[in-house]
Amino acid sequence: MPVPFKHPVRFLPKMLKIDQKMPALLRFLATTALLAAVGGCASWQPATLQIGETEQQVVAQLGTPTARIPDNAGYLLEYNRNPWGQATHLARFGPDGRLVSYEQVLTVEKFAQIQVNVATRDDVLRTVGHPAETSYLPRQQLEVWSYPYKEAGAWNSIMHVHFDHAGIVRLMQNGQDLRFERDGLFGFFGS
């Protein structure tokens, strides 16, 4: 005989070892606090930065950057949320150390700025930041930088940028990020 499904929230007091004799209000508050804490971990709100802020002000709001990238007359602070976050934010600073722009760069528009047979590794770093993963294709002799992202804010996609030995972009391939397939078969069988 199949066991009927019970909502998991009913099991929270038991999982937390909250005594059933405890007043209902206290049980409710403990369960609500746990759900709020777990929900807080799952959400991320972009910072509200103002153009012209100093690096110290930006770091105070965003925390320590994942990388510092030189950029012509200024520099970039990278806040990479990959491999699973599907986002990289770049804070661009001018030569005076003041914020010029702050944006999420793993977008179709930013990838379109990378010119095949022209762009270099440094150009790619300054455009979309560091990759979530790197690999090498020995037969083609290409280094591959992979960037998981949300295409159009909806589709789990991954952009692969291929470099030759000279560090020039030779190929870009966009595809489905199979890590998010729900059928357990990585999208190859059924849907």
Q: How would you describe the overall organization of this protein?
A:
The chain is of the alpha+beta class. The protein folds into two domains: 8-42, no CATH class; 55-180, no CATH class. 23% of the residues lie in helices and 29% in strands. The strands form two sheets. Strands 1-2-3-4 form a four-stranded antiparallel β-sheet, with helices on both faces. Strand 6 (142-151) and strand 7 (155-163) form a beta hairpin. The radius of gyration is 22 Å and the shape is flat. Mean pLDDT is 83; it is low at 5-9 and 38-44.
Secondary structure topology:
Blueprint: H1 12-15, H2 24-42, H3 55-62, E1 67-71, E2 74-80, E3 88-93, E4 99-104, H4 108-112, H5 121-128, E5 133-137, E6 142-151, E7 155-163, E8 169-176
Antiparallel strand pairs: 1-2, 2-3, 3-4, 5-6, 6-7, 7-8
Helical amount among residues, as a percent range? 10-25%
- Portion in beta strands: 25-35%
H-E order:
HHHEEEEHHEEEE
Strand order of the largest sheet: 1-2-3-4
Number of helices: 5
The helix-and-strand class reads alpha+beta
Could you say how many structural domains there are in total? 2
Top keywords for this entry?
191 residues, 4-stranded antiparallel sheet, 29% strand, alpha+beta, 23% helix, flat
Q: Short description, anyone?
A:
The chain is 23% helix and 29% strand.
